[in-house]
Model the fold of this input.
Amino acid sequence: MSGSNRERGQMQVLGRRTQIVAGILAGLALAAGCTAAPEPGPATGGGQKTAAAPAPATLDLGPKDGSNDVAPGEPVTATAGGSTLSEVTLAAADGTAVPGGMDAAKQRWTSSKPLEYRTKYTLTARSVGADGAPVTRTSTFTTATARAQAYPSVIPLDGETTGVGMPITVKFSAPVADKAAAEKMLTVTSDKPATGAWRWFGDDEVHYRTKEYWPAYSTITLDIKIAGRALGNGVFGKADRKITFKTGPSIISKVSDHEKQMRTYKDGQLVLTSPVSLGKPSARSVSGTMLIMTVQSPYTMDSSTYGVPTDSPGGYRTTVKYALRLTNSGQFLHSAPWSVRQQGRTNTSHGCLNVSVENAKWFYENSHRGDVVVVTDTGVDLKPGDGWTDWRFSWEEWQKKV
Done:
């Protein structure tokens, strides 16, 4: 072989060896995953999502700007969305500031004091959203003019201990047209379960009665939230009130005219049996579920208070030692030493329940307003409204509210 042929053969062998080595290296690179990174290209539907831009802050003010006849007792609010509140002010046109406070998250501000009537106010709220942009909103509004303001008088009194039959009576000093709204402003709570409901007696008086008697030894609270709030026809609540009272023992007395006996139960146990003389045929006692309204000693019984002159036939003016009122018309449970011989036998009173001085003293010393006295068999029914007559209704009738 010539030299040139030998050189060409060596070159061919070297070329084949180079191809083999390159192939081996390429295989190793693929096995190790050492591929080149692709060039960046346009995003596709399956690519990474771009982060959303921060939402701007929003502010919601109440009442709305330009509102008129705003109830002064309704809360004024500023609520932030997508941010926190940085500053809130509420002031009357003369510059008088109204206090308020924010919740823990600083996203809601609420006024803490009722507004004045017939006054223009401006609410200003400021916030900064996550996007860093500040937001300011204002609302200018005018409060209502009150035609009348209703003050709520309440029975029982705050701190009083009552009998288990005691209803709650709220008497408004002005008529209430929106009764449903008013009821929502009256909240009754008890530390012992007791189902109850409100019932209206006219436009200015509402009573709360339980389905059964109150549990003995319970604590009841009435929370009235009507200050500056609309009660209908231009009448607004004058003041909020909070009344807490307690019930004492359950004392329930049952009187039968047929038997001429009164049996008194304390917490379900018979504790006293009293012979009794009821109203004579010309002045019968009434039958029904009555409540003790007053407990007095001494007390002067005067027939002129129900239309019979003291100097006329059948008239009287007598002072008794112990007297407990049961009706507005003058039916009492009281001591009557002059009729002890008739007690338990015949009826001789002018409509009252006559008992001995000793038994009347027991009632005087143990009774509370709201204790229950149930009289039966007299043939004359207790008239609606003649005293605290809430228990003349069945529970179904009471709930009808008419």
